[in-house]
Amino acid sequence: MLQVSKHIRLSSHGRGRPSLTKNNDLQLLIDNEIFCLGPDRKTSRLSQLQEFTLINLLAHFFTERDEMNKYTYFEVLFLGREGDSFIHEQRLRLLYRLASYALQFPVLQLYAQISLWLSKVGSSKPYAEELVAVLAEHYLKPADSKIYEYLLPLETSCPEFTVFFVVYATRFMPINRPMAIVFASHINRNPGYFLKGFRDSPHLADIFRQEVFEKMLTYLLEIEGEPASDTEAMNYHTAIMVLLDKWSSTIKKPLDINLLFDPSVRWSRFRSDALCVIGSKSPAASKMVAKKLETCKVPPAYASLISDAQARTLSSAC
């Protein structure tokens, strides 16, 4: 680690600033002395305990680095073998474990470097999906645990990463209670900043609007019981309403809302509220909702709520 720091300090002076990811001597040093590759270059000499010790050491290392060169350290350590697929994958595997560990250590500033890297990669590689799968396995699968709470500080320390998490988590597992709580918290904390992430990364917006939002709606519409008595359900409901209300003002392509007009879907206050929000956007949207509901048998109580919302929208346009 001292040698890595020395190389980075030296490279930070002067105009040239050569790429240390392409410095073969330095990368060999990292292979042999940090990741401890074996003679065949395909296996590690580290035991499980030694690998955990390395992860702990890396967590301390990134806590102590100065902000100016932090991404350089990240790049040199984890991205310096992109030309060698096997060694590169080995480094990424350890990075994913470090990222999971960093949530509890905590060294949340590591996620700023991760988010910058994933933004540069874009849709060309599956790295974001792979990392989110690891985090979902560790923090969302235990449905009866509160370990998911370690994911919540990301919304303030690195809100950029929360967009990646919400987009890819449902590819790994269906929405459960912990995932719903995390999604709601990430979205509600700062909706404008959250949606800005989609505006800046259209490929993430496309995945969300075509795949994820329908899954989120399905989970909402399957919630049973009295909404007002369930804080978690109301927070999730609020997140959906926020997305329906603010999405079109930030992203041009629309969300998939067809599920709300499916005659086979159970009616609930959540469903009627969603339709009211959609219809309130404009007179044209209000008429669209009314037209699509013609094939649905709407219970009188909900029909009244939707009609009142439509009337308010039309009167405000006059």
TrEMBL record:
Q: InterPro entries recorded for this chain?
A: INTS15
Taxonomy, superkingdom: Eukaryota
Any matching Pfam family: INTS15
- What this protein is called in its record is Uncharacterized protein
Give the organism the record lists: Ancylostoma ceylanicum
